[in-house]
Amino acid sequence: MKKILLLIVLLVLAAGCTGNRQVQVDDSNGLRISTFITSPSVVESISGDTVLFDMEVENVGGTTAKNVQIDLYGVQGQWRDTNGNLLTSTQTKTLGTLKPPIASRNIPGDFKMAQWEFKTPAIPQGITPDLKIEGRVSYDYNTSGHLIVPVVSEDEFRRSQIESQPIEEPVIINSQGPIKLTLSANNRFIILDTTSSGSTYTHPFRIELQNVGAGFPITPEVGGGIIGAGGRLTGTIQLLGPGVEFDDCLGVSGGNEINLDDASIMVRLRDSGTVPIVCNIKFDKTVWGNRPTDSVQFIFNLFYRYYVREEVSVRVVGR
């Protein structure tokens, strides 16, 4: 009896070990379609056999994916259900919420599976088409970004040029996900003109948001947006620093925080995969004083709906 119990314990431990899932982390994506397969991949149209479609989705990014939904395209009005009835709509399954991985604790991100079972369309004898099915996973996601931009006075900038000393590089921190904020090579710091008259100085500064993921944002545009278009980003942008405030950033002036829903210029990603954000930053020189260097910080908290897609094909032998 003891040997039997020991054997059971060893089998359970072995099953637990082989069941461990490796932590997957992707700096440039949120949800990933781990697998999308069909079984069988070749079928006869009149055999009465069904085809199984299996998809596994995993969160490999840095934040929680919400309202996860899978849509199958290429089946409506063509394939049949298990009772032989023609499918009358796009086939949809909801997966709810998927949490991100915690690599430091060796905890993988949430992963879920979905399965469909269909009969093939009726294909006449003599032809063998490859029928393509697209699976599209859409989800709500969040990207956070922290940008620290060096600011130098006019005198400090001249001194650094004379002494051939480089200006400190900006610091860009992005959460793991498909949308990133970045700066161009010629837009790395701000020179604050403290020598001119007046108590304020305004400096234009350009930040870019880039889609680096495998899919595309599809947030619907409302409130005067382009009908049917997507790619809209919502959320907030904060500005921190000594004596600074926004002065015409996306149509908003004054204060240190912008709600993108209230901005008169909509932030949207297009086919190029990038969107520029140009902000005029107003400095109060009486607050800045005689300091040679300091910094300003931009804190982005962005929300959007995103999708990734995979495609499979089934070869149907006409009979």
Based on the model shown, name its key terms:
single chain, 319 residues, mainly beta, Immunoglobulin-like, 2 domains, ten-stranded mixed sheet, 3 helices
What are the SSEs and their pairings?
Blueprint: H1 2-18, E1 31-39, E2 42-44, E3 50-59, E4 65-73, E5 91-98, E6 111-119, E7 130-153, H2 154-162, E8 171-174, E9 179-182, E10 190-192, E11 200-211, E12 216-217, E13 234-240, E14 244-249, E15 257-259, E16 274-284, H3 285-288, E17 293-317
Parallel strand pairs: 2-17, 7-10
Antiparallel strand pairs: 1-3, 3-6, 4-5, 4-7, 7-8, 7-17, 9-11, 11-16, 12-17, 13-15, 13-17, 14-16
Please give the number of β-strands. Answer: 17
Which strand-content bin applies to the residues? Answer: over 45%
How many distinct helices?
Answer: 3
What is the global morphology? elongated
Low-confidence stretches: 1-18
Structural class: mainly beta
Helix content: under 10%
Distance between the termini: 59 Å
Taking all Cα atoms into account, the compactness measure Rg is 27 Å
The total tally of domains equals 2
User: What's the overall average pLDDT, rounded?
Assistant: 89
Task: Please describe what this structure looks like.
About 10% of the residues lie in helices and about 45% in strands. It contains 3 helices and 17 strands. Strands 2, 4, 5, 7, 8, 10, 12, 13, 15 and 17 form a 10-stranded mixed sheet that branches. It is elongated. The protein folds into 2 domains: about 20-140 and about 305-315, Immunoglobulin-like; about 145-305. The protein is mainly beta and about 325 residues long.
